[in-house]
Structure formats: C-alpha cells, structure tokens
Amino acid sequence: PMLATTDVATVDRYYRTVAPFYAAEMRLRTDLDEWRGLAWRLAARRILDLGCGDGRVARALLADDPDREVVGVDCGRALLGDDPPFTFVEADMRDLPLDEEFDLVLAANDPFVHLLSDADRGRAIAEARRLLATGGLLVIDGLYVPPQDDIVAAGDGLVRERHLDDGTYVHELWRATGEHRYETLYRYERDGDETEARATVRAWHPGESALHDNAARVAGGLDERDFDPWEGRLVAVIAGWS
Ligand SMILES: C[S@@+](CC[C@H](N)C(=O)[O-])C[C@H]1O[C@@H](n2cnc3c(N)ncnc32)[C@H](O)[C@@H]1O
C-alpha cells in the first residue's frame, strides 16, 4: 500500500507497446558478452537479474553455465515469453519478496530509469543490497546522458534514428525536463504500420544521492573501466552491507 502501483501499470503499458520491437532492439547491444565476463570474474554462483524483461541476460548467463542459479525479477510480464528457463518472480524491485543471497545482483539496460525519485532509487538499491552475499555486488548498467546530448535534449530535442535487423525503422525524440529527467518518444515503423510509445525516464549522474549514500563505485563499463563523462554509460558497482 505504501508503494504506488499506478506507475507500475504505466511501465507495463509502455513495455507491452514496445514488446514487438524489443528483441530486435536488443540485438544491437553488445552487453551479453560483458555480463558473461563479469559473472565469471566474480565467480558468481547465484545471480539475480533485476527488471529482467524478456530475460535475455538471465538466459545468456544460464546457458553459459547451467550450474548457476539465476533468478529474474520484473514488475510485469510484458516482455517475458512462456516458460522461461530461469526462476521468474513477478515483483517490484522496490519491495522484493526474496530472502536468498546472491553473489551478483544485476540491472541490465537500466530498469532504474523508471524510478524517478531519489527515494525510489534508494529503496530499490537497499533491497538489492539486502540480498547480497558476503563479497557480492550489485551492478547497474545505467542510463547516462552526456552533457553534449543533454544540451540538445534541452533545446530542440535530441533525435536518434536507426534501422533494426528486421527492417524496423526507429525514431527517438528526447526532451529534457530538468534534473536528469527526459520525456522520450519512440516511433517504430514496420511494414507500413506505425507504433508510438512515450515514457518519462531518469538518467543517472555520478553525484546522485542513491549512489553516494550506498558508496557506489562509478565506472564507465561492466569491465569497471573509468567513468568518462562524455560517453553515454554509467555503471554503478555497489557492495553489500557487510
Ligand atoms: C529496458 S527493460 C530491460 C530489460 C532487461 N533487463 C534487458 O536488459 O533486456 C526494463 C525492465 O524493467 C522493468 N521494471 C521497470 N520498473 C520496475 C520495477 N519497479 N520493478 C521491477 N521491474 C521493473 C520493466 O518492466 C522492464 O521489463
């Protein structure tokens, strides 16, 4: 009751709209190798995938080493197919109904963007930290909008276009609304049909309180390279309480 559910419904509606295009969008990413590399580096036996969506990272990590235990959590099933090969828990990451320990809690293609307030981001991080085994890590592959893009988004709007490998044309428009928040409009065109999806998102910035309060190490990639403020990526690495 303390957690509003209306925003979860909005998130679910958004992902139901973009679901037909999601897998092709994700084929443009190169992060699966990076997540596999990280899991090996940490020798992670038990992995929690926060905001797992269709479970592409959970599946990749499980296929990579079937002896791992992989649990995926998402507040909705908009992207999830039938019979995922990993344990799926439908839950809000601000309030996780789990009591097990994980060596790696990961957030891929930033599910935190939908948590707009400091309090909500702090709550989700606290939940993840609560579930970390000794020596375990929470790793968030965060959305970061570099200043040169933010200036454009604050002006006429930042436009990005691309073609997916199934022929879909994608047009994105980002408008800055202040405090690292953006109104995004995605337009997909395929076979003469057009689909539009809007979302309000919040990017990370290295000084934000949820990072500071949790002693996050801020990196520029999953290999923990240095954060580069001119690049579009902020990886937060957070240890458990102990
Ligand atoms: C951009 S998708 C990323 C999916 C997946 N991690 C990937 O890398 O493909 C974000 C996901 O986060 C989920 N999500 C958003 N807010 C959430 C919340 N409060 N609790 C749990 N999941 C949430 C959405 O339902 C969506 O599936």
Please tell me about this protein's structure.
The chain is α/β, with parallel strands linked by helices. The chain contains six helices and eleven strands. The chain folds into two domains: 6-143 and 205-239, Vaccinia Virus protein VP39 (Rossmann fold, 3-Layer(aba) Sandwich), CATH 3.40.50; 147-201. Helices cover 28% and strands 33% of the residues. The strands form two sheets. It has a seven-stranded mixed β-sheet with strand order 3-2-1-4-5-11-10, with helices on both faces. A four-stranded antiparallel β-sheet has the order 6-7-8-9. Strand 1 (46-50), helix 3 and strand 2 form a beta-alpha-beta unit. The chain is globular. S-adenosylmethionine is lined by residues 11, 15, 26, 51-53, 56-57, 73-76, 79, 92-94, 108-109, 111, 114.
Write the layout of secondary structure elements.
Blueprint: H1 6-26, H2 31-41, E1 46-50, H3 56-64, E2 69-74, E3 87-90, E4 102-107, H4 118-130, E5 132-143, H5 147-154, E6 158-163, E7 169-178, E8 181-190, E9 193-202, H6 209-213, E10 217-219, E11 233-239
Parallel strand pairs: 1-2, 1-4, 2-3, 4-5
Antiparallel strand pairs: 5-11, 6-7, 7-8, 8-9, 10-11
The structure holds S-adenosylmethionine.
